[in-house]
Amino acid sequence: MSAATETLSGTRLHSSWSRDLRQPLTVAVAGNPNTGKTSLFNTLTGLRQKVANYPGVTVESKLGQWSVATDCLVRVIDLPGLYSLEATSLDEQIARDVLLGHAAKIAKPDVVIVTVDATNLTRNLYLATQVIETGLPLVVALTMFDLAERSKLRIDVQKLSDFLGVQVVPVAAKRRRGIDELGQAVLSAAAAGSREKPNWSFSIPNQNGAPSLSDLSPESWQELLTARYRWLEKVVAESTKNDKTQQPNISERIDAFVTHKFLGPLILAVVMLLIFQTIFSWANLPMNLIDHVFSALGAGLRTHSPPGILTDLLVDGVIAGVGGVLVFLPQILLLFLFITLLEDSGYMARAAFLMDRLMRAFGLHGKAFVPLLSSFACAVPGIMATRTIENPKDRVATIMIAPFMSCSARLPVYTLMIGAFFSGQKVLGFISLGAAMILGMYLLGIGVAIIVAWILKHTFLNAPSPPFMMELPPYRMPNLANVAHTLLARVGVFLKQAGTVIMAISILMWVLVTFPRASATVAGSDHAIQVENSYAGRAGRVIEPLIAPLGFDWKIGIALISSFAARETVISTLAIVYKVGDDSGTESTSLVAAMRNARRADGSHIWTPLVALSLMVFFVLACQCMSTVAIVRRETNSWRWPLFMVSYMLVLAYVASLITYQGGRLIGLG
Amino acid sequence: MTLDKTPIGSAVRIVSIEGSDILTLRLMEMGMVPGAPARVIKSAPLGDPIQICLGDYHLALRRNEARTITVALSD
Fold it and tell me: How far is B15 from chain A (nearest CA, A)?
């Protein structure tokens, strides 16, 4: 056991409370998915938590601090949900490795809190008995205790505790019931140190360290497993009393509509439409507000500070660049809000249930539906959500197509292009052309994703149709505190990126556009000459022959180069290239005007509707996002897949853009 | 009778589960053990997967996997 436990053992519990714990205890919260584990973690730690990445391992684990008593802080780790120590998915492997102390650089927890859903005792206790067998100091937290009481299920906690040989504490996280008792139990478990391993007949014989059934013959593990369940059924039968008069299950009644043959798919379509509609209309107001604030900030700074290179850098580089990206914050927030609500309410599992058969036609898994839907917000959390897909080939196939889902970073690109070249037009008399085009871009991404998935699954990710087994958790009212925690964490990640990566790229692009200075007399007076002679201008010139067939000139080339770090920088780069960041109006309107007025040497327009369409198609298909590349590298643990992804998506984007532009010219557009 | 052929709405008891792979292991770990009570709730709109109530919770399972599970109607 760790030093902290050793110093604690032998001291009386109440005296150990007041002592100075130089090395705080580490408590891991483990449990089945959907058992209120995260609710409990949030209640224990409040706002003292952070999403952390451990060095060298692919663990995004939530860490927090819990003040158990006035002067006693405990470190708490929220582990990914798991059904068994026989891990079948990456999420489960992570949780198991941390529990057993196999995770690199993460100390074995001093105490484990196993959450056990009081409304689903038998299956939850399966994992609990496995963790009890490891001998780790352990406390069982009986979650959803209020729900069990309400459904007239009476649990004899003491009896359950006697059977299991560990302390069992009923909790209701939302109402903070049982939290103090849980704290006492954790401290006394820590003080007692490692327990003697229980002597159960169904335990795996002669186990060393991690028990693994897979080392045994199928006959013997089936026998042991069945025996364990027999025992668990007996434990549950003897320690509970069910007064409920077979009331109909509420979740089943909701399911009668939500997964109904006809209503189910209809509800799914309406839910998705509603999400996108909301993001487009509701987000506009706060987005314009942010846009105005940054424009005003730039203009104010310009008038109140001496003209010079530093002011230029701040206004054209930092403020224009970062402001152009922060504008998305409302859209990202709304999208994550919806996805978190759908996830926490239990609807996401139903969506996967409805979609599995369809997804299988393309070689994918129903569980891929959730990550792909999340990818419409951002591919990074979407790709992380693939960890629940057990089959590695299926998981990689899902990761490979996730970036085709039009993420929130593409939206402003679509919005800019449509605002500049397609605004105010109608299709069929009543549908706005812009809305139809945005829908078209989403559909293009989905269509290509389906084709690519099918090809991947029939070539080098070929594998037999994977088993589909998924819990359909009971519908629950989303816990608003949990939703707020998730949103805060996501906003934090986004702001950090805007403050670091995107600011760095904005500054870099500004430098590349500003240097070398054309000449002392020309600089500042003629921006076009300056840009053309800058480093960025030269780079744009170099790739111009390559992108000219797509309809792009060298200025668009500059924007394209910068957008490979992050799509949203295309707008800030265009703003820098066209030098519109310090206009008194909003950035986007002035950028639109600059784009509409930009002309070639022969007087023809650089930007035409066809060029805009070609650029939009390119942005649908190209993988222009450093964060995505980094997360794919981390999640697949190799450079092979991220490099493959970037290259094939680039080729696809180029070809599709080429077809769009040249095809459009052939039929007389543009 | 296997679980994939069981009529919607029937209450059954698990008799046996065929196979020795990781899926069988996981199914059994989730409570699909001989003797366990189960109920077939419905099938998804496209006919697959099916929804099973196993003990105190609900599980979605493809017919392919359900085929490996032998059940007997209870009562």
Answer: 12
